[in-house]
Design brief:
Blueprint lengths: L1 H86 L28 E6 L5 E3 L7 E2 L5 E2 L5 E2 L2 E9 L11 E10 L2 E10 L4
Antiparallel strand pairs: 1-2, 1-6, 3-4, 3-5, 6-7, 7-8
Length: about 200
């Protein structure tokens, strides 16, 4: 009888030890799973974050490059109009040579009698004072613009035009230095170019 009771006590202790060991194994498995899950989550999060940052830098570079191209386009547009007017026999021929909005090649910023000017510029060549630019917007055709639209973006663009020679104003210059600045978040991209053969 005592032997049976002893065996029962030992068996009960054995089962209790097994239960404790099983619980410890389950707890260890849960901890390992959580560590693997957290590591995997951090890896995915870092990848997505890096991908988004790369996308923003990619867009910002293109928007900054576009700023330079828009200034070149103004130069080319003015040149084409002036060449057209040289061949026009009179005012009646001007419908074929569209009027430019102002006598200064940088559009509606005034007479450009300064050696350096900063402005915002849109695809329609409309310029505006832009010392502290608002964010660019996405219009209904998914183009970036300074004109207020439905979707605000984190990108801000402004352009600085500076004469290459001291004492010469922009309107009289034959070449200018153009800096297209793109701000997004706490980052900034500057692209520079020189534009020659300005034609009044």
């Amino acid at each position: 009888m005592k032997l049976q009771q002893s065996l029962l006590v030992k068996l009960e202790k054995y089962h209790q030890n097994k239960k404790g060991q099983f619980m410890a194994e389950v707890l260890l498995a849960i901890i390992i799973f959580l560590l693997v899950f957290i590591g995997f989550y951090n890896l995915i999060y870092s990848y997505v974050k890096t991908l988004n940052q790369s996308k923003e830098v990619f867009i910002a570079n293109f928007l900054a490059q576009e700023g330079l191209e828009l200034v070149r386009a103004i130069r080319d547009y003015r040149f084409a109009i002036n060449e057209c007017r040289k061949t026009a026999s009179g005012q009646s021929d001007y419908p074929f040579c569209p009027e430019y909005s102002t006598s200064s090649w940088l559009g509606d910023l005034g007479n450009n009698n300064t050696s350096s000017i900063t402005f915002c510029l849109n695809y329609d060549f409309n310029t505006s004072s832009c010392d502290n630019p608002d964010s660019l917007y996405l219009n209904s055709e998914s183009f970036f613009t300074h004109l207020s639209s439905n979707t605000t973006t984190k990108f801000k663009r402004f352009i600085t035009v500076t004469t290459t020679l001291d004492g010469i104003n922009i309107e009289s210059a034959t070449s200018v230095k153009v800096i297209s600045t793109l701000q997004f978040g706490n980052k900034q991209i500057n692209l520079e170019s020189f534009i020659f053969n300005l034609n009044k």
